[in-house]
Amino acid sequence: MAIITISREMGSGGRPIAQQLSEKLKYKLINSAAILEVAADYGLTEEAMWQCDEKPPAFLEEVDRQSKLNVYRIHLIVLEQALNDNVILYGRSGQDLLASVEGVLRVRITAPFEERVEDWAEREWIDPDLARSLVRKSDLQRSSYIRYYFDRDWADPLNYDLIINTSRFPKEAAVKIIAEAAQSSFLKEHSETCKRKLRDLIIQKRIQINRLADERISDIWYDILVENGHVTLAGHISSEIGHQAALECAKAVDGIVEITDNLKVVNY
Question: Which of 4, 27, 64, 74 is a good FRET partner for 89, with 20 to 30 A between their CA atoms?
Answer without folding.
Answer: 64
